[in-house]
């Protein structure tokens, strides 16, 4: 198939390569002219045959909304926009409604795979009508993991518009909790004098245990590269999807204590001197005479 791809960063650029390796024609557009195949969105749309399919891979939020709005003015009846970024599912519904007024289809697609996706394939969760999905299915088939590597998984039509990004949002919330569990276990193992080689303990878990996973593999890789993780500051950002998962849990009265705790742990990581912990230390000192540590050390 032929499609346009807007946004050629770490994910988008690798996706263009994987699609081309599968025999598809991809016209990419990026603000960086050195990697772009088109000079503008209008030029990209002009180069595509009808019905036109344009896949958007730009940062979530206003940038994505602006790109999709501009595409709505450039595309026509029967064309299709795919949002493969990390947009919030409520944005998908608004974008789909806007494009539907012009008889332009819309599919939202949560994409997981990161920098490894070019080699291993991407897990895809997409939402939209069956007719719209069919227009972009060849691209999904090329991007997902190969058939000889559990390729019957890693690709799902999750439901109506918004279902793809909602599923990816929950996926990332689960990811927060799993990573937090590995991190806490690693810290505890490092803390005791009983365990001589924490990295080898983690490595042993990669086979035959119920907690083996790709994230565990990546943790071992990180420990091999930097034993003790001494080169890394204990600071972690959140992409937004963890927050959205917690909010969705609240909206639907679904308890998400593990995901919520993992999100809050990231907030704590950004505090050099936690104000809340100061208050706790002060109260412990007041009611029990427990020692406090001075601000100077």
From TrEMBL:
Coiled-coil blocks: none
Sorted UniProt keywords: Gluconate utilization, Oxidoreductase
GO terms for MF: NADP binding; phosphogluconate dehydrogenase (decarboxylating) activity
Annotated InterPro entries: 6-PGluconate_DH-like_C_sf, 6DGDH_YqeC, 6PGD_dom2, 6PGDH_C, 6PGDH_NADP-bd, 6PGdom_BS, NAD(P)-bd_dom_sf, Pgluconate_DH
Alphabetical GO biological process terms: D-gluconate metabolic process; pentose-phosphate shunt
All copies of domain 6-phosphogluconate dehydrogenase C-terminal, residue ranges: 164-296
Family as reported in the entry's similarity comment: Belongs to the 6-phosphogluconate dehydrogenase family.
Protein name (Swiss-Prot/TrEMBL): Decarboxylating 6-phosphogluconate dehydrogenase
Species this chain originates from: Nocardioides agariphilus
Lineage of producing organism: Bacteria, Bacillati, Actinomycetota, Actinomycetes, Propionibacteriales
Name of the gene encoding the protein in the UniProt record: gnd
